Amino acid sequence: MFSVADHLLHVEGEALPRDVSADAVRSVLATGAACRAPVSGAVYGTLLNDRNALEALGDAVNAPPYKAPPRAPILYLKPRNTLAGHRARVTVPGSEGVEVGASLGIVIGHTAARVAAHDAFAYIAGYTLVADISVPHASVYRPSVRFRARDNFCVIGPAVVARRHVADPDRLAIAVNVEGRPAFGATTASCVRGVAQLLADVTDFMTLAPGDVITLGVPHGAPVVQAGERARLAIGDWASLEIEFVAPCAAPGARA
Question: Which of 149, 167, 168, 208 is an S-S bond match for 112, by CB 3.0 to 4.6 Å?
Fold first, then answer.
């Protein structure tokens, strides 16, 4: 079982995460502390779960290689090397920059297999913010590992928020602020499948373990950043997640 009483925060340099209040999380972050990812299970991203992303494909969704809109969740793995936490430094590999997708992360509390949608919330320990980072690419068919699985390309946190604090995960505001630019805003209400239905559909064909995370999906139009920029991501009134983007030569000093 993976359980969260309040807010689970793993400060960098500490052996174990803390389970503390929202005010305590903000107090710790105000000191400039960096954090590790507050989870260590498998992390699965979800593609084309945003209505705007599907609309952007237009008629192409009915042409090869897609041939039809997706009938089941399209998942990809964010492997262990991608995991990082608050104030991570992420290497931008090329001049095309990287896309910074802010997504709601659903943190599994109990082993979940063939879960009915009406029972889904009982299997959830809490929620977290996932910065699902990728090299920009046009096609989402068979997601490429080299675009999505680079080091520190999955920044999570700062904390896991206990399920009891989130009244409606399908009505949460999402924001990405890049210094010097207008803020990017979205909402989980634009998802094709809400939290409960996504969990039901995914566990129909695979088992999720306690501590695993599945994202609700990246909103369409997520900003692309370059080395030298910083981003602050937020969901609702949760503590925000900060990321610094650096050039490849700065990689040896990257936090993980």
Answer: 208
